[in-house]
């Protein structure tokens, strides 16, 4: 199982929720997982119903079996200060530059630098060891940028290593890419059973493969249940008024005579059933597209009551039985 789990997806697919649930799933049975946020939206804090995350690793949840989930919201400015201190021993000078606004200026005008700092901090957490030479975290889960930007985000250190031919910047960039392009990393893509997210997922996978970045699984989120069996779907698609009216009558909703309750219910029920049948067919088409990607695909249910902490633990349990260690795959 890869130690760095990167979770991306088109906006609106619930990638932050999936990343949080995956961290809980991986921390089961006494493991330690670090959940990393790189976009500054504080989505992790909202999901775990806690205060805004600072630039420090903080325990935010206990997983089943006693495991622990820590979280870190990486701030590019603070990461740059760490970088200056680590490689150039410029801690004091770096703080002075921050007061002058130079740090903010540097990370704003150079978005590539920002990505270098964010990926570098996450990979440092993956490599970090304690005094007993054990990994500080069993798993690091990154709530990464959206699918349209994920390849460039992860591959930015490759570009930096090519530009800086020697020195600490070159060495750091190469060290990060050794992690990101190794079996230690898996990039999962979250999608919905809708045409645009599925197409963006397919495009993202092609880009990741072209960049030689390790693709993990496709996770289909918010899958709605099928309420009708095949016969009922065919009935809905065919708008069999008489058959539906008769069934309603047999169910005790009044006679099927014209103007009766059963008769009045036929049209709205057929309309809803037809919409459901159309959605089911569209979902089948998107599942066929995903199947052609030749990747393991897992589905998570739509939680009708909305997403809260209990729902997050439920999704973690679903993921535990699928892609986490000890699951069925």
From TrEMBL:
Domain ArsA/GET3 Anion-transporting ATPase-like: 5-180
InterPro entries: ArsA/GET3_ATPase-like (IPR025723), ATPase_ArsA/GET3 (IPR016300), P-loop_NTPase (IPR027417)
Xref: SUPFAM superfamilies: P-loop containing nucleoside triphosphate hydrolases (SSF52540)
A Pfam family the protein falls into: ArsA_ATPase
Top-level taxon of origin: Bacteria
Protein's name according to its UniProt entry: ArsA family ATPase
């Amino acid at each position: 199982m890869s130690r760095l789990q990167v979770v991306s997806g088109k906006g609106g697919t619930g990638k932050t929720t999936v990343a949080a649930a995956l961290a809980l799933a991986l921390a089961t049975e006494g493991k330690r997982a670090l959940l990393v946020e790189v976009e500054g939206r504080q989505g992790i804090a909202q999901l775990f119903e806690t205060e805004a995350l600072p630039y420090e690793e903080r325990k935010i949840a206990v997983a089943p079996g006693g495991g622990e989930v820590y979280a870190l919201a990486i701030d590019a400015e603070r990461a740059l200060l760490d970088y200056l201190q680590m490689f150039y021993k410029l801690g004091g000078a770096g703080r002075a530059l921050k007061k002058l606004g130079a740090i903010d200026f540097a990370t704003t005008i150079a978005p590539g630098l920002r990505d270098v700092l964010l990926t570098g901090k996450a990979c440092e957490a993956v490599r970090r060891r304690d005094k007993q030479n054990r990994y500080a975290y069993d798993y690091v889960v990154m709530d990464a940028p959206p699918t349209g930007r994920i390849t460039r985000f992860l591959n930015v250190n490759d570009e930096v290593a090519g530009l800086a031919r020697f020195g600490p910047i070159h060495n750091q960039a190469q060290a990060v890419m050794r992690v990101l392009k190794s079996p230690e990393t898996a990039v999962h893509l979250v999608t919905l059973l809708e045409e645009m997210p599925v197409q963006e997922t397919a495009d993202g996978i092609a880009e990741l493969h072209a960049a030689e970045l390790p693709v993990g699984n496709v996770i289909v989120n918010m899958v709605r249940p099928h309420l009708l069996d095949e016969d009922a779907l065919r009935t809905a698609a065919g708008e069999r008024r008489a058959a539906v009216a008769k069934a309603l009558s047999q169910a005790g909703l009044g006679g099927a005579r014209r103007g009766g309750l059963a008769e009045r219910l036929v049209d709205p029920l057929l309309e809803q059933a037809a919409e459901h049948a159309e959605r089911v067919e569209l979902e089948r088409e998107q599942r066929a597209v995903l199947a052609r990607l030749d990747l393991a695909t897992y589905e998570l249910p739509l939680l009708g009551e909305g997403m809260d902490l209990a729902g997050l633990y439920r999704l973690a349990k679903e993921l535990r039985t699928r892609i986490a260690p000890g699951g069925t795959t």
